[in-house]
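@channel anyone free to eyeball this complex?
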Amino acid sequence: MEQLAQDFYQRDAAPPSRAPQEAGPTPAAVSASEPATAVTLPGYRPGRMLPRVLGTAARLGRHGLGWVVPLLVVGVWELASRLGYLPTRILPSPLHVVTVGIAMTLHGQLLHHFWVSMQRALASLAIGGVLGLTLGLTTGLFRGAEIALDSSFQMLRTIPSLAMIPLAILWFGIGEECKLFLMVLGVFFPLYITAFNGVRSIDPRLIEVGRIYGLNRWQLIRHALLPAAAPHLLVGLRLALGFMWINLIVVETIATDSGIGYMVNNAREFMQTDIIVLGICIYALMGKAADSLTRLLERRLLRWNTQFGGM
Amino acid sequence: MASSTTTSSTINVSCRGVTKRFPSRVALAGIDLDVPQGQALAIVGRSGCGKSTLLRLISGLDTPTTGTIAIDGEHLRGINSKARVMFQDACLFPWKRLQANVMLGLTEYALELSSKALERVGLAGRAADWPNMISGGQRQRVSLARALASQPELLLLDEPLGALDALTRLDMQRLIESVWTQQRFTMILITHDVEEAVALADRVMVMDHGRWVSSHDVPLERPRDRDSAAFIDIKRAVLQSVMHDGKAGGATADIQHARSA
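replying in thread with the prediction:
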């Protein structure tokens, strides 16, 4: 027990590197014993080991449970194909799609299309992200910029970006610029709006505290406004990624000779349902991967932010 | 009323004819105030009487409509860099660990000073915690540590204990008194708790409708015995002054006294 107490003390003395939410019962336990124990034995909180282990197990279980339904659907689908209820012309079996995927990967063409789509996605994310962030933060931070720019952006925001396709084709032709333009639109507005609202969401008293404690303008932005905007920005990023995928899929069907969208469209002309389904699955996996990445980012950046986790 | 306590010669905070008008109301109607170096002054009054407005003016967060405020003889412009403020809400930055919160605004020896301040309020072991992991009372301790870390000349407390439960409030009052006794900064405490004012302050001033109503010296030994006759007498006098809205006799004399203090 003595050694255990020592261990707890050691661990808590160093800045904890893990999420604070894991220490479930801590706040209540501590406030109950406040203030005497807080002074004498700062880090020692008995009975924390078991909740931690249980918590980790429960979390793993939850993550595993999330896969149950998708796997079940795929299983039923495979079974239906095998038993002949689903003709391959309508929907090929999952196993068949995987085989085609492996074959196309070995052939090299799948990777080529995948890489072209990824490049489009990354380029539009970079351009739209930088533009949306800078302009959103600028209008959020400075009244003058807000008056000058915000109402224009709010008006443009209401136009669905895909409604711009005819104009984009006339302006940029049917090359990469046109695709990039439409995808950047999809990325820009969610980030612009969440950056603006994020900056404005800060508790004004925190700004006053910052001013009293001698922070200058730049320090206020760095220590108060940007961290306050971070949760909103991450929501914006997820929205932006969603719009980006939609626009990617649409622009890749306009007129192209490469990309997953082209691959799928091409397959349609030859009734290759297996390649169509493969393309759709790749889009789904890319979307899921992007979403998981932002969730990871959220957990890293927002460790201070304990949220309601659902009932 | 007892004679004026021994006051050091230097005046820390000096207000002359300070008024503050808002579009819909007059918050301060010509306030004079001198706070000597190292004095603990409490300002009591009903809510909306203008006491918090005065504190905001002294902190430099707002500017007076007319009149002047001088800190150490210097006309106050912009933020009062010699003052630290503690609000009713701890106002910690939720995205900073406790230690980083206390380090706010420190430029030199930030780590040492913040550690010392956290230790002073009994939270040294929680330095790496996030603000939402600790209780309201602990958060207010961190807020106090943050205010003390830079060893300010002037501490402004705007109902800092108003949101705490009675026991935690007593604890905090003891903590504030012991810190003040050690460091002897000038302290202006805004409160609506008359007992708290009499327990902590050298002088209690009563405000109503943006004017001074009375001023009461508290020449009692610290730490103060709240059950002693002298304590209760002063408490009753202050309370009467608060309740009677300044219509009680002797108020004018008290105002004169306040100005000359």
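from a first look: Strands of chain B lie at 11-21, 26-36, 40-44, 66-71, 74-75, 83-86, 154-158, 186-191, 203-208, 211-217.
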